[in-house]
């Protein structure tokens, strides 16, 4: 197999292969895979190993066609471990090696996906309309620039080359310790980065944004609606006055609903359709489960309600 690889007509070039590399003991082992197939394998999209591997063998150096000696494999992975199992270990645990062009393309794909997710989940709180992906991109770019600039200022101050803010300037420019956005990376999933981006946008408000609300249908037996909530608590209003927390199951449910779309009683069931902040969904579900003893339920009608321009 080594001789075949070294033949000019069959020589593997780094531009045509994705390498997965794993250091085990004092040796570095490589396998040759088809582009984009490694991530699909790890995500469970691709399940056929033959579609992932270009050559079913373990190498010390793929580009030179240098296969790993059996002695090295036995010493690193164990004497009785089959080659197929060694390949799977490298494939699942190894570091994926990509070239600069491929890395840039991957970063661009993740960036586009992150922006798309964020744009679908956030709205202008005044109009409830979604922003374009371009506006979301610019807003995140502003946060990224501020984060990098802040890091530079901090570094300059620490080295004595900058001037720390004092007095009114220090109070006028508080630094947010959490929800700092520094840009997209390829080492995290687009979904997790989109969540980080949304938190940063909401916390820093480079443009007015809020989470798009969920549209829910909540149903509950009328026999439990007027039951008093266990251990009622008091809540403190913005003006400092103490206000009694909702006293009944119905009051508590409606307390989670920001805007009621419809409300009706049908037979022995009460139903309300309305809009709820995504962050309140779990608390509402938990409340229904604990207080109604199975006689209340919530159904998601729309994960993210927005208004789009025609």
Please supply descriptive tags for the structure shown above.
single chain, 13 strands, three-stranded antiparallel sheet, nucleus, Alpha-Beta Plaits, 11 helices, elongated, alpha+beta, Sdo1/SBDS_central_sf, Ribosome_mat_SBDS_CS, 310 residues, Hypothetical 12.0 Kda Protein In Nam8-gar1 Intergenic Region, Chain: A, disordered N terminus, Arc Repressor Mutant, subunit A, four-stranded antiparallel sheet, ribosome biogenesis, 22% strand
Description of the structure:
Belongs to the SDO1/SBDS family. The protein has 310 residues and is α+β, with helices and mostly antiparallel strands. It folds into three domains: 96 residues, Hypothetical 12.0 Kda Protein In Nam8-gar1 Intergenic Region, Chain: A; 96 residues, SBDS protein C-terminal domain, subdomain 1 (Arc Repressor Mutant, subunit A, Orthogonal Bundle), CATH 1.10.10; 85 residues, Alpha-Beta Plaits (2-Layer Sandwich). 40% of the residues lie in helices and 22% in strands. It has a four-stranded antiparallel β-sheet. Strands 2-1-5 form a three-stranded antiparallel β-sheet. It is elongated. The N terminus is likely disordered.
Record the SSE blueprint.
Blueprint lengths: L1 H5 L11 E7 L2 E7 L3 H6 L16 E3 L4 E2 L2 H8 L5 H11 L1 E3 L2 H22 E2 L9 H27 L7 H6 L17 H15 L5 E2 L1 E9 H4 L8 E3 L5 E3 L4 H8 L2 E8 L2 E8 L4 H11 L4 E10 L5
Antiparallel strand pairs: 1-2, 1-5, 3-4, 6-7, 8-12, 8-13, 9-10, 11-12
């Amino acid at each position: 197999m080594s001789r075949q690889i070294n033949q000019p007509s069959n020589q593997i070039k780094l531009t045509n292969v994705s390498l997965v590399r794993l250091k085990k003991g004092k040796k570095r082992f490589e396998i040759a895979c088809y582009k984009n197939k490694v991530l699909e394998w790890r995500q469970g999209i691709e399940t056929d190993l033959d579609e992932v591997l270009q050559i079913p063998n373990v190498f010390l150096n793929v580009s030179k066609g240098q296969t790993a000696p059996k002695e090295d494999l036995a010493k690193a992975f164990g004497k009785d471990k089959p080659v197929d199992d060694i390949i799977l270990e490298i494939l699942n645990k190894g570091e994926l090696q990509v070239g600069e062009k491929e890395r840039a393309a991957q970063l661009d794909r993740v960036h586009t996906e992150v922006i798309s997710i964020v744009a679908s989940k956030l709205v202008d709180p005044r109009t409830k309309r979604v922003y374009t992906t371009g506006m979301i991109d610019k807003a995140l770019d502003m946060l990224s620039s501020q984060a990098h600039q802040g890091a530079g200022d901090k570094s300059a101050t620490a080295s004595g080359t900058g001037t720390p803010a004092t007095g009114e300037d220090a109070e006028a420019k508080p630094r947010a310790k959490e929800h700092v956005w520094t840009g997209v990376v390829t080492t995290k999933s687009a979904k997790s980065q989109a969540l980080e981006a949304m938190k940063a946008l909401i916390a820093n408000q480079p443009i007015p944004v809020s989470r798009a609300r969920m549209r829910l249908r909540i149903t509950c037996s009328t026999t439990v609606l007027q039951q008093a909530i266990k251990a009622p608590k008091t809540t403190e209003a913005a003006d400092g006055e103490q206000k009694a927390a909702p006293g009944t199951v119905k009051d508590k449910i409606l307390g989670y609903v920001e805007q009621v779309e419809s409300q009706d009683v049908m037979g022995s069931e009460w139903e309300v359709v309305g809009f709820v902040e995504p962050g309140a969904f779990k608390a509402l579900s938990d409340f229904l489960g604990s207080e109604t003893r199975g006689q209340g339920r919530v159904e998601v009608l729309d994960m993210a309600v927005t208004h789009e321009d025609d």
